[in-house]
Amino acid sequence: MSLDQPQLDTSPAVSDEVRKTTCYMCACRCGINVHMKDGKVAYIEGNKDHPVNQGVLCAKGSAGIMQHNAPSRLRAPLKRVGPRGSGEFEEISWEEALTMATDWLKPIRENNPEKLAFFTGRDQSQSFTGFWAQGFGTPNFAAHGGFCSVNMAAAGIYTMGGAFWEFGQPDWDHTKLFMLFGVAEDHDSNPIKMGIGKLKKRGARMVGVNPIRTGYNAVADDWVGITPGTDGLFILAMVHCLMKAGKVDLDYLARFTNASVLINQDPKSDQYGLFLRDKDGQPQVIDRNTGQLAAWNGKGVDPDLAGTYRAKGISHRPVFHLMADRYLSDEYAPEAVAERCGIPAERIRALAADLARVAFDEAIELDRPWTDFRGKKHDKMIGRPVSFHAMRGISAHSNGFQTCRALHVLQIILGSVEVPGGMRFKPPYPKPATAHPKPHGKVTPGAALDGPHLGYTHGPEDLLLHDDGSPKRIDKAYTWDNPMSAHGLMHMVISNAHAGDPYKIDTLFMYMANMSWNSSMNTGGVTRMLTDKDENGDYVIPHIIYSDAYSSEMVAYADLILPDTTYLERHDCISLLDRPICEADGVADAIRWPVVEPDRDVRGFQSVLCDLGARLGMPGFVNEDGSQKYQGYADYITNHIRRPGVGPLAGFRNADGSGKGRGDVNPDQIQNYIDNGGFWLEHVPENAAYYKPFNAEYQDWAVKMGFYDAVQPYIFQLYVEPLRKFQAAAEGIGERQPPEHLRERLKVTMDPLPIWYGALEDDQVDLDTYPVHALTQRPMAMYHSWGTQNAWLRQIHGHNPLYVPTKIWEANGFAEGDWAKVSSAHGSIVVPVAHQASLNANTVWTWNAIGKRKGAWALDEGATEATKGFLLNHLIHELLPPKGDGLRWANSDPVTGQAAWFDLRVKIEKSAVPNEAQPAMPAIKSPVGKGPSELEWKVGK
Amino acid sequence: MTQLPPPSAKKLGLVIDLDTCVGCHACVISCKGWNTENYGAPLSDQQAYGANPSGTFLNRVHSYEVQPDQGAAQLIHFPKSCLHCEDAPCVTVCPTGASYKRAEDGIVLVNESDCIGCGLCAWACPYGARELDAKEGVMKKCTLCVDRIYNENLPEEDRQPACVRTCPAGARHFGDLGDENSDVSKLVAERGGFDLMPEQGTKPVNKYLPPRPKDEMPEFDVLAPYLEPIASDGKGFVGWLDKALSALPGGAK
After folding, report:
1. In chain A, whose CA is at the least distance from the CA of B114?
2. Which of A249, A320, A795 best probes binding to B when mutated, by most B CB atoms within 10 angstroms?
3. How far is C-alpha A739 from the geometric centre of its chain's CA atoms?
4. Closest-CA residue in chain A for B94?
5. Contact B45 A935 (CB under 8 A)
6. What is the DSSP string of A510-536?
7. Contact A156, A167 (CB under 8 A)
8. How deeply is A623 buried, as exposed, middle or buried, from its count of CB atoms within 10 A (0-12, 13-18, 19+)?
9. Can you tell me the distance from the alpha carbon of A602 to that of A598, in angstroms, rounded to the nearest whole number?
10. Is A487 part of any domain?
11. End-to-end CA distance of chain B
12. Which of A69, A757, A904, B244 is most buried, judged by most C-beta within 10 A?
């Protein structure tokens, strides 16, 4: 053959147009360039100018074209015509659908607003959906945080005004030692990969603490294969080592934390364990300049970490003394925790020593002068270049809140929060608990709720309880069961509504939450609750309205379906009022906009809420003449005013687009965002970039930008006084008292300094019978249920074996292709197994949410997701095993109510190979048919 | 059979860092997206929503567990696509001349209009880097995004393969491995980049950077001075604290 090369056009046209919007293939919210050909989506790539992803894009993001064109997309509103769970529907018009919804909701609003439970899943519009629920007047609103990562969020807010991901990130450009605890991959997806890439490039070290060595842990320089649920113990052992060696940042602790604040030490006092306060209510410290009491925030005050105070026979000691008493105890010595954590004591010491070495011997200095809130001038910014990141792995346990607190305290004693090389907040965070609203739950028929639903409690007086002690909310958030449930408890809504505990509801209204499948514990039980009927033959939960873009498992269990658009067909705002996309060096927000118009009879859910709100005459959704206030979500995004000068989008405010943070409405605001690539970004001034809570220049800038209306410097709360107030109540102090059955638990778990206790489920389960920990992880190439409808991504994760460590593999004589029966105290499943050596010896795991129900997602009923894929959810109950007291104890963290997914204990036995994974739930009828057999997706000519 | 051109001075290829690759499959899907819409026939999928989906991919990520003699098992993520070999057996085996190696930059391509789908090249490739598209019946393989890297319709910074542009961890690098002063050549030199299966004699242009040694934290005795105790209990700590504070600047009271 000849050597003649064919002529090749190496400069073909790439696309007709690029439209820039925000990805929604997971929660990460990257900027994307959508290449269009002939009006169709041809190719999706990362937006290089975008602050989140800077051009890169993960597998999910690039596969967005398959999501947008998925055959599982719903096509029109649906009315259920068969029994619940059958999947039998009839397409109806939007007018009929909205009339039906209004007919159900209007009498509820006029008579018993709490009979509506409105819960949204992974939506990114909670400041809007919450505003809607507030206008409706029901106390029963939350998003999915309660079953996700509220422990991390709440522990972070109470301790230091923010946690990780949306709130903060490692200082990737300066950190020298990065310790990563378990994360759900989208918390935070591309920024963590980019950060790890930066560390690798600079030769910085990374330690992975995770029972499972995959993904990020596979590239970590050191892997600590910890036993699940013992992270808090491991962290406190390192705190023990560091304090015992005096390897703590005394100057930082004295100035920027409440380590110096004085605590009442008289057990007979009703103030026992509370801060000594002056007449203005300010916590007191000893000022080293005078040796006298002073307010923590007084000008020129130099707080004394060792100052004590005695008056009227009552001793007061600084928080740091109490920490020394607790953490120097042998209880936290590495030897005492090693076996439980599955980490040798010498390794724990080595890790603690390495933190000390890097934090103090390799400290960095940036030549940036700054002034703190007490007026003290600092000529440099001192950095402790150790940083941490953690999310679901440590928080989805019943000891998760205290574990997250322990991690934050570890960072703080090293002086590594908000300093160069450490962990940095992302504006508008940090924001302390005291700057957040308190929870509201006062219902007035026909009127709005008395304030925003979700917030932070500061003592028993803030709980949402009726005078008789019964919960105001259906999910029992903000009760003695879980006093600091800042995100609600979505995983308890259906269970409680079905049980009528605390009361029955009329309508369950949900958005983007697959509650009859992977988003619920006890999946089979939940589907029975959703279909259960009372003695009259009526459904126990009378009405269910659900909005989703796709034919998920949950669709079959609703009576009325409001079909949503895909993420490329809709308006959205990723707002500073919600969960913003900011970076440590900049404040940012973003939009989605319809880069293509829907080709189906579907509507963006938020626009539908604008319509429904008007039909219901809700405040905020009607004009004075009763007409509809917002014609759709875009109208709301542009014209809604939350506080004077502050709206959903912070950029391009004022008619000329000049306003940053604050400003008047700009009718062209959305177009300005589109012209700017779909986002807005304003950099933090250089000398305000670190020490944000204490930095006077940052505080002034934050007010200017509208994050808050007056400067509010604060210090980190190593000792969280609100926890002590709940604990004190349990000890009998105060008017509002917990029920007797919760008293002992509250005394232990509401400790104002971080503690560790074993998983609550361990007390109720025979650990000899169920000795093995079982976990799930979210794959990097798939998000929740969404990935399986995606023809490309399902070729990467089409089914999910149970990964088994060598010891258990050999003990059971497993071989490739084998199946196992996996049982918990609650149920059992039969699933395929695979061997993995790089795994904690007492832990099994599988990928999250790959398993699918037959008939869902427009998949063939023989799809491997349905025949070999499975859910661990069947083994996890929303309630702890009964204690014989007749009470329903939630399988949740006792502080925040976070779902304790990862407390699960199982046993494993070899099983005969079944026809398919068990339990095999019957197929549901697909409302959208099945996808095509072959794809050849080229839209250009 | 088809002849190879004389070795080109310019040898375009990829350098893939196995120390940094987290196995996220971003490169796999970005490649699938670009090459479905661009060069040649689209990459088709069979049983896309069926029982056993399969499709054409030009780049896949495999994961391998490694059990060292000492210490914990490790997991290596291993992205694999055409290595654009200098002595490419897939080219010399081609009966129609459809498979060829470009004289100017060494990229190995398939001229789809001449490909008869006989599959000989896939058999000849020791790396399993070619896939026959089930719908079109033509051989598909990595083009090194030849329609991107010279594309004047793209901004200059985007003239790199889709997999490189998208890689979130920065584990993929593109450049001229024939130029010893190029960034990629320097990276290979610094990090000990290696050929995949050199014993096959294919002289692959693509290089892999090895994972750095893992789990080699210093023993505690080296680090012990950092944890020299200053106290054994809370009381002792308070005593130390008083002394330590008075030693701080302005500390003497």
Report:
1. A6
2. A795
3. 30
4. A1
5. yes
6. EES--TTTTTSSSHHHHHHHHH-B-TT
7. yes
8. exposed
9. 7
10. no
11. 91
12. A904
B76:A14 CB<8 A = no
Q: Two tokens at A857?
A: 């997602």
CB contact under 8 A, B75 and A194: no
User: A571: helix, coil or strand?
Assistant: coil
The pair phi, psi for residue A178, each rounded to 5°, is -120, 125
Q: What are phi and psi of A344, to 5 degrees?
A: -60, 145
- Is the predicted pLDDT of residue B1 greater than 80, yes or no? no
A933 touches chain B (CB under 8 A): yes
Partner residue opposite A218 with nearest CB, options B75, B229, B244: B75
Nearest by CB: B217 against A219, A350, A935: A350
How many contacts does A have with B, using Cβ atoms within 8 A? 333
Query: What is the mean pLDDT, run by run of 10 residues, along chain A of 941 residues?
Result: 78 97 95 97 98 97 97 98 97 98 98 98 90 98 92 98 94 98 86 97 97 96 98 98 97 98 97 98 97 97 96 96 97 98 97 97 96 96 97 96 98 98 96 96 98 98 97 98 97 97 98 95 97 98 98 98 98 94 95 98 98 97 97 98 96 97 98 98 97 97 95 97 98 97 98 98 94 96 90 96 98 98 97 98 96 97 96 97 93 97 98 96 96 94 77
Where is the domain boundary, A375, A402, A425?
A425
CA distance A207 to chain B (A): 9
Decide if A838 touches B, using CB distance below 8 A.
yes
pLDDT of residue A3: 56
Task: Choose, out of A850, A936, A938, A939, the residue to mutate when testing the contact with B (most B CBs < 10 Å).
Answer: A936
Domain boundaries, chain B: 12-209, 217-253
The HSE-up count of residue B139 (CA atoms within 13 Å, CB side) is: 31
Give the count of beta carbons closer than 10 Å to the beta carbon of residue A896. Answer: 30
Residue-number span of the structural domain to which A400 is assigned: 168-425
> What is residue B251's three-state secondary structure?
coil
- State whether ipTM is beyond 0.95: yes
Q: Is A781 on the interface with B (CB under 8 A)?
A: yes
What whole-number distance in Å separates Cα of residue A680 and Cα of residue A722? 37
Nearest-Cα residue of chain B relative to residue A288: B253
**DSSP annotation string for A682-696:** EEPPGGGSSSTTTBH
* Both tokens assigned to A633: 């979500």
Residue A14 contacts B where some CB pair is shorter than 8 Å? yes
Closest listed residue to residue A399, CA positions, set A233, A241, A521, A273: A233
For chain A, how many structural domains are there in total?
2
Verify whether the Cβ–Cβ distance B232 to A328 is below 8 Å: yes
Mutate to test the interface with A, among B29, B63, B70, B253 (most CBs of A within 10 A): B29
- Answer whether residue A181 is part of any domain: yes
**Are the CB atoms for A241 and A334 separated by under 8 Å?**
yes
Supply A922's token pair. 């019957």
Instruction: Note whether A46 contacts B166, CB cutoff 8 Å.
Output: yes
In this structure, what token pair is assigned to residue A903? 């407390």
Block residue for tokens 């197929």: A923
CB contact under 8 A, A62 and B33: yes
Q: Look at residues A375, A393, A425 and tell me which one is the last residue of a structural domain.
A: A425
Q: Residue type at A767?
A: L
Q: Length of chain A, please?
A: 941
Specify the pairing of strand A828-835 against strand A819-823. Answer: antiparallel
Q: Residue A794 belongs to a domain with what CATH number? A: 2.40.40.20
Spatial distance between the Cα atoms of A696 and A676, rounded to a whole number of angstroms:
31
Residue A844 within any structural domain of the chain: yes
Residue with tokens 């407390």: A903
| CB-CB contact of B80 with B61 (8 Å) | yes
Length of chain B equals 253
Structure token pair of residue A297: 């925030």
Give the global pTM: 0.97
